[in-house]
């Protein structure tokens, strides 16, 4: 089963998806020009070919999300490249209600290891699916200090 990618435009800019029939392997948020995004995808997934119908549902859901018409996702994710710890963190993140924010401390406590703040932050930074019905778009550059405020670096 070979992976494929799709590049498409949403209100903030160009997005990318990589996946196969098992699910979405990576979501690229807007921020790069179309050709830069294509090069990045091809560098990270050299075996990929552009365009497959199995990505259409995920593409449609993301377009709806950026149009403000969707808050939860039904797309299937392929978590096979995530570690067991990352899977645990992502599962807890997926329970955060749309529009709400949680701290790394909260996530660490929920996975049963309150001292794992850095590990939770690291899993968050490596998140290949930054939109999936999480309470907020979670990326490595977003920080959630212990008091719950959001800041950007």
Summarize the SSE layout with pairings.
Elements: E1 4-10, E2 13-20, E3 23-28, H1 34-44, E4 49-50, H2 56-66, H3 84-93, H4 104-110, H5 117-125, E5 142-143, E6 151-152
Parallel strand pairs: 1-4
Antiparallel strand pairs: 1-2, 2-3, 5-6
Please give a structural write-up.
With 153 residues, the chain is α+β, with helices and mostly antiparallel strands. The chain is built from 5 helices and 6 strands. The protein has helices at 34-44, 56-66, 84-93, 104-110, 117-125; strands at residues 4-10, 13-20, 23-28, 49-50, 142-143, 151-152. Strand 5 and strand 6 (151-152) form a beta hairpin. The longest helix has 11 residues, at 34-44. The chain is globular and about 40 Å long.
Per CATH, the architecture of the largest domain is Orthogonal Bundle
Q: Quick one: overall form? A: globular
Terminal CA distance reads: 39 Å
Please list the strands of the largest sheet in the order they lie side by side: 3-2-1-4
Low-confidence stretches: 134-153
User: Helical amount among residues, as a percent range?
Assistant: 25-40%
Number of domains: 2
Order of helices and strands: EEEHEHHHHEE
Fourth-tier CATH superfamily name of the largest domain: Winged helix-like DNA-binding domain superfamily/Winged helix DNA-binding domain
Q: Residue-averaged pLDDT, rounded?
A: 84
Please work out how many helical segments DSSP would assign.
Answer: 5
The structural class is: alpha+beta
Please give the number of β-strands.
6
Biggest sheet details = 4 strands, mixed
């Amino acid at each position: 089963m070979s992976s494929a990618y799709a590049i498409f435009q949403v209100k903030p800019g160009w997005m990318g998806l990589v996946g196969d029939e098992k699910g979405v392997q990576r979501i690229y948020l807007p921020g790069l020009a179309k050709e830069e995004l294509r090069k990045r995808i091809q560098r990270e997934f050299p075996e990929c070919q552009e365009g497959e119908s199995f990505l259409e549902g995920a593409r449609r859901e993301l377009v709806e999300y950026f149009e403000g018409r969707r808050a939860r996702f039904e797309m299937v994710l392929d978590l096979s490249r995530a570690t067991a710890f990352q899977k645990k963190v992502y599962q807890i993140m997926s329970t955060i209600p749309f529009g709400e924010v949680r701290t790394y401390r909260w996530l660490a406590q929920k996975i049963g290891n309150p001292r794992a703040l850095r590990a939770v932050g690291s899993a968050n930074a490596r998140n290949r699916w930054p939109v999936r019905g999480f309470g907020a778009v979670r990326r490595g550059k977003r920080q959630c200090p212990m008091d719950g405020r959001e800041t950007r670096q």
